[in-house]
Amino acid sequence: MGNLLHYAIVFLVVALVAALVGFGGVAGFAMDAARLLFWVFIVLFVISLVAGLVRRA
User: Fold this and answer.
1) Average pLDDT for residues 12-28, to the nearest whole number?
2) pLDDT (average), residues 12-41
3) Is residue 15 a contact partner of residue 27, using CB atoms and an 8 Å limit?
């Protein structure tokens, strides 16, 4: 799961650099990819957390 968060941060940095340079299309795509990976990470983290709590009980 750590790789998902890493890739989300990488896409965020790419989006910021592309926006600063003026590549709006690339920045938009990278920002959407970063947002998607971040939410997938959050969902998998919550599922993992709940599964861990259920397993203990």
Assistant:
1) 89
2) 90
3) yes
